Amino acid sequence: MRRHATILVNAGFEVLLVGRLKSSSLPLQEEVFGQKRINCIFEKGKLFYLEFNLRLLIFLLGKSPFLFLAVDLDTLLPNTLAAILKSTKLTFDSHEYFTEVPELVNRSDIKAIWNEIAKICIPYAAKSYTVGEALAAELSLKYNQPFGFIQNVPPLNTNQSLAMKTPRLIVYQGALNKGRALEPLILAMKLFEGKLLVIGEGDLSDSLRLLVQTEKLNEKVEFAGWIRPAELQQYTQKAWLGYNLLEPESKSYYFSLANKFFDYIHAEVPQLCPPFPEYISINNKFEVAIICQAKVEEIASTLNNLANDQELYKKLENNCRMAAKAYNLQRESVKLIQIYKAI
User: What is the CATH T-level fold of the domain 2-153+329-342, as seen in this structure?
Assistant: First the structure.
């Protein structure tokens, strides 16, 4: 959202980005757009969502913007109500298949509530879009409303000087949550002579650290915690390989197109990707990744084979350079600006 907000400001719009304040939140940095954090008593669960939506609605009703933009389904209801009550237009940016995230797979009652919110609110949006073509088609079919797509890609920097890579250093960046295939990656490190740097935090932070201790992998696995977006690229560029595997139980992951996928490409770092539509489609055009199942033995075998095949590694690395020219913020920003200037 920082990228999109900056694009819109540079295109002449005034933007206020509203989020939540968590106990683990880093201090805000100065940006060209306005920023507001909502402080909640509850950090997670049903009471959090209820409290956050109420606080967000109250905050939005105190504003009179040209347009409300709801980011993901968990902010759509208050934005829709505010748009109706203020006679203001609404757009919807769906970063994931929210009703099919792993946390809701076996919770049919909660999933039904979010689906009902989506069915009621999405038709009020003047424009809806998501992160990739496959998910756009799926959401369009599910909610009988047209969805476009804006890929979450970094800007192309033709003058960047890439850092020296650390041999056999694998990097994972993102939330440490269920379905990210982090447990099999950690266990695979027992079968691979290399190091793993885990960047991020999440619901599995404690259990993953315990797994590393239990398996006596402290010398091979390092947890870096949260790192500011502006500093993240420095870590990514030093990696030998990026990790982007997902487990297949979640439709949200099946239709995903992760930010990290493009971050690895722009850092010219080959990666492991799951056999899901978006990754296969792009990899068929630019072979930047090795498609791999999220199983310990297969991960370890893939890592060892790549470490012993310098020709393949160089090919993937060179393809990253070409893919970055096709998938970058300069291209996607044109689509984003067109959406908001047409409303």
Answer: Rossmann fold (3.40.50)
